[in-house]
Design goal:
This protein has helices spanning about 25-35, 35-60, and strands at about 1-10, 15-20. The chain has about 70 residues and is of the alpha+beta class. The relative contact order is 0.16. The radius of gyration is 15 Å and the shape is elongated. A hairpin with a 2-residue loop joins β1 (about 1-10) and β2. The chain has one domain. It comes from Corallococcus aberystwythensis.
């Protein structure tokens, strides 16, 4: 799986959205039957988007790699 962030200019800022792309394996399909993937991964991505927003608002050129939070592994 690969996570893709899309940035689009909007009036007053930038809209950031994310999605996951890749092959949905048998294990992934089975897991999605018992666990809501948005609930499972959503918290991590929301935290990451909040960190990105804070970095952008503070004027830093890029987020530091050591503060990044990887998405939960499946």
């Amino acid at each position: 799986m690969q996570t893709v962030f899309t940035l689009a200019p909007v009036e007053g800022g930038t809209r950031v959205s994310w999605r996951m792309e890749g092959e949905n394996t048998l294990m992934g399909k089975a897991l999605s039957l018992v666990e809501n993937m948005d609930t499972m991964l959503g918290r991590d991505f929301e935290k990451g988007l909040a960190n990105l927003d804070a970095a952008a608002r503070s004027g830093t050129q890029s987020a530091r790699a050591d503060t990044a939070m990887p998405a939960s592994a499946l």
